[in-house]
Amino acid sequence: MNHHILAEKSASLTQRVSGGRYALKFAAGFWAVLAAICLQSCERSPFGANEIKESNRTIHGEIKLFDNTSPEGVYVWLEGIDVGTTANADGSFQLLLPADLNPNDLARSNSSLRLFFYMANYELLYKQVVINNGEFVYNRADVTKNGQLTPPLALKRFLRIKTEIDPPSVRENYAGILKATATFESPGDSTTLLFPKAIGGMLGAILLRNTDTRQVFIYEAVPGQESIETMLVGQAPQSRSMTFGIAQQTLPAGKYEVIPYLLVAHENLPAGLLNSLGRNVTALTPNYLKIPFRRENAILEIVQ
How far apart are alpha carbons 106 and 100 in whole angstroms? Predict the structure, then answer.
């Protein structure tokens, strides 16, 4: 009898313990599922599609040239943050904000900024982007929810630059005179050109860039000249020339682009854009070639 009572009590206790364990397991599972739901919910933006995410430091887009020439080298520059990139041969580009923006940049970045597209002899255009706390805000201004700039832009050329060289081919030991001529046309409104180091209506300097090695050689019309001349270019072609010799510098055999030294007076060029391309890019140094132009450059061939 006593053994029977003890057995019943033991069974009852086992059922209660088992039920308690089941309740505990159920409760633990419930809270785990709830936590997972909360985690997923928290990953979604409480503010909608404009939420900043880790990937929002990057935007991408496409730029074209209206005359269907290659847009490679078009400079893409973000005003205020002073960060830039260049377009590829197909016009695509990607701009990445630095991860370590300084406090001044962050202060300027909590607003709408202009993203410029620059080729020196093409019109200057820009898109509007919104930045907050050092990251792009997607689905605002000209940026889609996927970080794409839209719609694509096409820059229109306002200045044609064409160079000629005579003679076009010489030997390495050539001791004669070369004549470089640059011709300019502005199909739309007139354009103001600046010619540093120029005198008497000539070109002030010529740069020769090896098409293979990219080595640069510089020749001045009057060495040491520190003047500057301007020229207003319209639809009628206008030319400037310069004669020079190559005997004072040894030019290795090869082909060289003939590049005139000039600057374009852009009315709306923002302060800081040229400086962001490199140090002293407007000076007569190889850095001048960092300014993006689309020229029709003559080729000088040096043969052995």
Answer: 10
Same domain (yes/no): 294, 170: yes
Q: What is the pTM of this model?
A: 0.80
Task: Report the amino acid identity of residue 89.
Answer: A
Whether the CB-CB separation of 138 and 56 falls below 8 Å is answered with: yes
What CATH number did the domain enclosing 116 receive?
2.60.40.1120
Report, as ranges of residue numbers, the positions in the chain whose pLDDT lies below 50: 1-52, 54
In sequence order, what are the beta bridge partners of 109? none
Residue 82 makes CB contacts below 8 A (sequence gap 6+) with 105, 272, 276
What the block records as the tokens of 166 is 């005579």
pLDDT digits (tens, 9 = 90+) for 262-298: 999 987 899 899 999 999 999 999 999 999 999 999 9
Q: Where are the beta strands (DSSP E) in the chain?
A: 58-65, 75-78, 83-86, 92-96, 111-118, 125-132, 135-136, 153-155, 160-166, 169-171, 178-185, 191-196, 205-210, 216-220, 228-233, 238-244, 254-260, 263-264, 298-303
Give the end of a domain, one of 96, 122, 155. 155
Please count the other Cβ atoms lying within 10 Å of the Cβ belonging to residue 230.
Answer: 11
Domain count, the chain: 3
- Say which CATH number the domain at 213 has: 2.60.40.3880
295 within some domain: yes
Q: CA distances (Å), 299 to each of 162, 209, 212, 257, 296, in order?
A: 11, 9, 12, 5, 10
Owning domain of residue 223: 160-303
CA distances from 149 to 47, 59, 130, 225, 240 (A): 22, 7, 12, 45, 40
Residue 49 lies in a domain: no
One-letter amino acid at 153 equals: L
Instruction: Extract the tokens encoding 28.
Output: 């633990």
Residue 167: cis peptide before it, omega within 30 degrees of 0 = yes
